[in-house]
Design goal:
mainly alpha, flat
Length: about 130
């Protein structure tokens, strides 16, 4: 890093160069040039315009695509069979099975609750006595 020599202030090193063209160009307003710049002829209006009307090499969109030829799909030799019909559902039997399962669930929960209540009572009686 070089520092300015002479009677200038320490902040002069960090200031932008004057707009008259002395020194290095301002990066915010300078157009992109060199090998990484892309042509802006096909760019959307205003899409690559920077401050002061300068243009930057921006994204010009995806490349054009061509539709595939007419017979590009492979030939189909076997046709799958039609799906079989589902068997009819007995809604009354389904409701009865659901009610039985619900009764079993409630009875197991009641037994587990009673066992837990007895255990809590035994633990509390040991603490009290």
């Amino acid at each position: 890093m070089t520092t300015p020599i002479g009677g200038s202030s320490p902040d002069d090193f960090w200031r932008r160069p004057p707009p008259g063209g002395e020194g290095r160009p301002d990066r915010a307003t300078a157009p992109i040039t060199g090998e990484h710049a892309s042509p802006t002829a096909g760019a959307a209006p205003g899409g690559g315009a920077g401050p002061g009307g300068t243009t930057f090499g921006g994204y010009t969109g995806p490349p054009p695509s061509t539709p595939p030829p007419a017979g590009w799909r492979p030939p189909v030799h076997l046709q799958p069979a039609a799906p079989r019909p589902l068997p009819p559902q007995d809604m009354a039997a389904l409701d009865m099975a659901e009610q039985r399962a619900q009764r079993v669930t409630y009875s197991i929960g009641a037994v587990a609750g009673a066992v837990l209540l007895i255990l809590v009572c035994l633990l509390c009686s040991r603490i009290v006595f």
